[in-house]
Amino acid sequence: MAELAGIGVDWYIRLEQGRSVRPSATTIDALARALRLSKAEHTHLRALAKDGDRRPFALEAVPPAIRRVVESLNQPAYVTGRRWNVLAWNKAAEEVFAFGRLPENERNTLICVLTNSRSRRLFGASWAEEARRIATQFRRTHDLWAGDPAFLDLQARLRRGCPEFDGWWGTHDVSVSVAGRKEFNHPKRGRLTFEYATFQANDDPGLKLIIYTEIG
Question: If you average pLDDT over residues 153-171, what whole number do you get?
């Protein structure tokens, strides 16, 4: 088992770096047990192993029907793509997150949370926890696009703009997006508490709809 774990660590690193490795599903499951991976890490390892050659990343387009749904909602809602770019949002989301005030190349939830001083103020004392959580979620998508210039550029921008990022990145922690709660210190509306949930689009699995519901 120890020998298998040693081999598994090497394979995991090679997979994470985007190098060609194709272990079987049985081997992947055995490695996950040997390495004592969490459920999220096990799923991530399976995704890395089955991923074939990818075309270069291209920015997604939001179907008009999804865009209209987002715009029709009264609660804050927005759509992101595989690279975490914010592709569509509604008026309620603009009032909280001010995506429309950002240059297009900064309209990205990772860049917003990790490098934007306004976001640090918006999250207040909970910023570090939220930033680390989102960094571990990014690890999951980044590894699937290892070596792609668009993702290398994004990672470099996060390193430059967030002193804490390298420490979080170095842990190799992986997590998935789940529903939860966030609290904000809004400059005009004061303390805001939201529950949020994330939905994947059938039109394009790379598109995610995030909806916030204000509570309390």
Answer: 95
